[in-house]
Every structure is written in structure tokens, then in C-alpha cells.
Description:
The complex is a heterodimer of chains A (109) and B (114). With 109 residues, chain A is mostly beta strands.
Amino acid sequence: GIQVEQSPPDLILQEGANSTLRCNFSDSVNNLQWFHQNPWGQLINLFYIPSGTKQNGRLSATTVATERYSLLYISSSQTTDSGVYFCAVAGGTASKLTFGTGTRLQVTL
Amino acid sequence: NAGVTQTPKFQVLKTGQSMTLQCAQDMNHEYMSWYRQDPGMGLRLIHYSVGAGITDQGEVPNGYNVSRSTTEDFPLRLLSAAPSQTSVYFCASSWSSSGGNTIYFGEGSWLTVV
């Protein structure tokens, strides 16, 4: 199956800093999504982005499908951004997602 | 519009007991799935369904059973609970199994098997 690697595994930022999270995947995909899991365990879909670039407020994401990686940018981080960010991909059956192990982000005051 | 609803939120079971985790969605989604999340890991797919009456196995199906008698409901059954099944379980749904679909997750069910 598809392998998904996320980096860095842990990240500590001061409020207001910017960060880039990376997701590498081992095969062609037709579905790539970024999720944020908040400290209460809730999973929130951030982006559906199998290719190209999207932006939503302080967050943006870019996927370069030909080179099999995706980047999630967080600008002007806030304490509410804390949690774990997961990249998940799927190949043939687009909703059979394979998750990476996540990047745990802590934003401090 | 409640989205994806899971019950119970917390459950403690004794080894060998059986139970059912309930999942319901009110978005008329075709595709539903169950994942488990273990500490320090991402989510792993247990079973999925592409429509009423159709189910299939995911990455870690052993010890679990599912059925899909209606579009709205997708229960997950633990046949004989084992400590290795202590985990957080997430149900998810999307409009279809084809590409281009945002997946929505329930709030999770915390299960402890003692």
C-alpha cells in the first residue's frame, strides 16, 4: 500500500511564527487531505488537495503530485492552532485513506 | 444537520465481551468507514462501505464486524473484545468513494478493554 511520511514529528512555535509541515507519499494518489486534530480529539478537514495550491485564511497547502509531496503552511500561528496535523492519501478507491503519523504542533504564548 | 454522530463516546469493556459502536450520518453520504487511532499513530482503516448492503475490509479488520442495512447507519461490532482493541474509534462519511470528496469524521469513541 501507499506509505505516508510526515515531518517534522513535533514542532513548538511561539505565537505569531510561521511554519511549514511536509507530507511525502510513495505512489500516485487521487485524494490527499490535510486534517487538524484538536486537543479534544476532534478531526477537522482542512484541505482536499490532490494537486495544486489552496488557501484558507492563515492556512495554505500545496501538493506537487509529480514529486509526491504536499506542504501545509501555517502563518501567524495562534494557540488555537495547537494539535496534531495529519496528511491522508488514497490511490485507487479514493476514500480509503492512508494516514501519516502526524505532526504535533504546540503554539506557546 | 448533525453530520456524523457516534455513540457511545466512552466505553469500558471486559475481555471477551461484545459490543456495538453506532455511527449515523444525516448527509445522505454513500461512503462510510471506520478507523481506529492508537497512541502516537495515525488512523488505520478497519472496514468501509460504498453503499447500503456493500461492505469491505480495510487494513485492520480482524475482530470487527460491520453491516450497512441503510444509507444512514454503519455500526461496528466487536465480537469478543481484547485489550489490543483498546483505542479511539472514528466513523467517517463522504458523498462517494470516488475522488474529489471531503471526508467528515465523527467525534470519536474512546474504548478501553480491561
